[in-house]
């Protein structure tokens, strides 16, 4: 987890002191990008505010864990927003400055970060639902996801030996437990936010 995670918490808890810090830390970067690309400081303030609202919605909908600086995250959002604004206004020959390369992040940063956070949120939901299951299913699924010393998944035969059951029963029970887990996941309201 990145130390800037505190700013995500600040957004969710409306911590004015930390939000002020966030503004001082990140807004100058956004202002420079917008002004260097046919915009004004007012335009920069608007898209910065929109990005914070979007970030708040993302964080509220699911657990958002930062792996990079929050300014880089906001920068990716604002770059995409400002490009869209320029396209809407039909600005001819729009060529962005080296803004995207400043932190070696590139244009796909936001997409990559979003995908990572979505995968993490899905995994967290599966773990949460696994903990709601009975002990025998929990143990069976955990063993089926485990890997041996060589890094290979544990075989059904090894699982059966570990649990003192037949291989056929282990296979049948594992299938039933996976179906039950998937049902629990899909019935959770949070699942709808994680489908895309």
From TrEMBL:
GO molecular function terms listed in the Swiss-Prot or TrEMBL record: DNA-binding transcription factor activity
Stretches assigned to coiled coil: none
GO biological process, one term: DNA-templated transcription initiation
Superkingdom of the organism of origin: Bacteria
NCBIfam families named among the record's database cross-references: sigma70-ECF
Name of the protein this chain belongs to: Sigma-70 family RNA polymerase sigma factor
Native source species: Paraflavisolibacter caeni
């Amino acid at each position: 987890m990145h130390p800037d995670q505190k700013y995500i918490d600040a957004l969710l808890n409306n911590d004015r002191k930390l939000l002020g810090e966030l503004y001082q830390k990140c807004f100058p970067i956004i202002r420079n990008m917008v002004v260097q690309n046919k915009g004004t400081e007012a335009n920069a303030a608007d898209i910065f505010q929109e990005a914070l609202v979007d970030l708040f919605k993302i964080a509220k909908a699911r657990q958002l864990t930062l792996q990079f600086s929050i300014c880089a995250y906001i920068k990716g959002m604002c770059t995409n927003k400002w490009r869209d604004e320029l396209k809407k206004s039909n600005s001819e020959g729009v060529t962005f400055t080296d803004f995207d390369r400043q932190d070696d992040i590139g244009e796909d940063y936001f997409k990559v970060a979003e995908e990572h956070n979505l995968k993490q949120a899905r995994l967290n939901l599966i773990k949460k639902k696994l903990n709601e299951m009975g002990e025998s299913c929990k143990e069976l699924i955990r063993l089926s996801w485990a890997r041996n010393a060589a890094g290979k998944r544990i075989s059904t035969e090894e699982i059966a030996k570990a649990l003192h059951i037949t291989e056929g029963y282990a296979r049948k029970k594992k299938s039933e437990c996976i179906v039950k887990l998937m049902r629990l996941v899909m019935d959770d309201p949070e699942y709808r936010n994680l489908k895309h």
